[in-house]
Amino acid sequence: MQFMLQMVNVTRNTRPSLEFLSLEDEIPDYEFVEPVIKGVQLLCLIDKGLDACRYLQTSGEWYQSIWLAKVALDEKESQDVLTRWSDFLSTGGNQKHKSVEVMLSLGQFAKVAESLYSLRYFDQAAMFVEACLEFNLIQNTPETGTCAHKLTLGGALFLEYARYLESVGFMRGMRHYCGKAGEKGKQLLDQHLNSKQKRYNADSVQPGTV
Question: Cys bridge to 137: 27, 106, 118, 132, which one at CB 3.0-4.6 A?
């Protein structure tokens, strides 16, 4: 970790430092990581901290890149590095749960909702989106992409959660989320009411009256 601090010092001062001379004695398996370290050092020397973080990520050193980004980059550049990490976690890293946490820390609420939806966490996603919509954290704008379309136009997430609530018998909650799911929610509620009416009619028929 100390070699990262040394690189940060160079990034901030943008001039060579004699501290690099001690790296070989301080880092275990230096020969194995030496090419990556030297590449990052050179990028930091020319004030290319963002490129240094990307180089670390390309080399598979994700945690080191995040650490360097947080201490050496400005907020916008740091978010860029964290976003790439989040994308890696949700795809190649196969750690979608961790990716959701990263997106949440970045304030990417629409992506958080979309990820929860893809993980089929309909209950958590529905309540999260409902809170975000209440406080205008998710809006139907081009920036929010397909997630906003699903949630505010198609109502897919609310519809799935309404179906889940119906399956567990929580009809009051089911009706609430059907009302938020648009036309398809109305259709689901109508189907439920029609099915309920048919069961009532069947139960009302006395034996021997037919």
Answer: 132
